[in-house]
């Protein structure tokens, strides 16, 4: 008998049989949103995190990879790859993902098939907070890119600028830094590590 209940976006949606090459992404916010939404971990519904007070607009579809978690394995891999021993832990959330597409997607709270091509190793107050960069499967413009090194430099710069400044208030010091920009193969390993962390923490679900 098929379930008559809505699946929890984090715990109930499969990551996909072909992950990490192609995976399911849950999109929370889109570039036209003037409010930052994020998943409520208890109910699975989108909630308002905060209004976008300033002109910093997310430059891609933004959400997370279901059935992933940024914990000890993610933190250890971040220390190993960056040479940074001050990375204390993962950020305790599902693995974040940006999905590039030329299409105008009007709202979040949707799932899509995404192809990871790289990532940004963001460090936020000593926590590993990786951002996987992906392209929408079969997108007419972006699906030709197989690795982040192939993207126009302006696209990568825009993504980096967003994540370096999206939590900043005027006059306050920056709390985020990007330790590495990495390619497709390393992104695949980050995804595998986040699945390991998920199973270690939520394997009983």
UniProtKB/TrEMBL annotation:
Signal peptide (residue range): none
Cofactor dependency: Mg(2+)
Annotated PROSITE patterns: PPASE
UniProt cross-references to Gene3D superfamilies, sorted A to Z: Inorganic pyrophosphatase (3.90.80.10)
GO BP terms in the entry: phosphate-containing compound metabolic process
The entry's keywords: Hydrolase, Magnesium, Metal-binding
Recorded GO MF terms: inorganic diphosphate phosphatase activity; magnesium ion binding
PANTHER family hit by this protein: INORGANIC PYROPHOSPHATASE
Protein name: inorganic diphosphatase
Organism: Runella defluvii
């Amino acid at each position: 008998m098929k379930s008559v209940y809505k699946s929890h976006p984090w715990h109930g949606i499969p990551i996909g049989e072909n992950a990490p090459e192609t995976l399911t992404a849950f999109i929370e916010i889109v570039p036209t949103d003037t409010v930052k939404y994020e998943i409520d971990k208890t109910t699975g519904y989108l909630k308002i995190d905060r209004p976008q007070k300033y002109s910093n607009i997310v430059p891609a579809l933004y959400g997370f990879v279901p059935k992933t978690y940024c914990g000890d394995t993610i933190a250890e891999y971040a220390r190993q790859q960056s040479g940074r021993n001050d990375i204390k832990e993962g950020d305790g959330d599902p693995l974040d993902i940006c999905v590039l597409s030329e299409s105008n997607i009007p709202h979040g709270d949707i799932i899509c098939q995404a192809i990871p091509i790289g990532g940004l190793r963001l460090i936020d107050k000593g926590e590993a907070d990786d951002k996987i960069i992906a392209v929408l499967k079969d997108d007419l413009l972006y699906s030709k890119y197989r690795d982040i090194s192939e993207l126009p430099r302006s696209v990568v710069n825009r993504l980096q600028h967003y994540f370096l400044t999206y939590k900043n208030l005027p006059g306050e010091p920056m709390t985020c830094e990007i330790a590495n920009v990495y390619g497709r193969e390393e992104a695949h390993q980050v995804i595998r590590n986040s699945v390991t962390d998920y199973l270690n923490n939520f394997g009983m679900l």
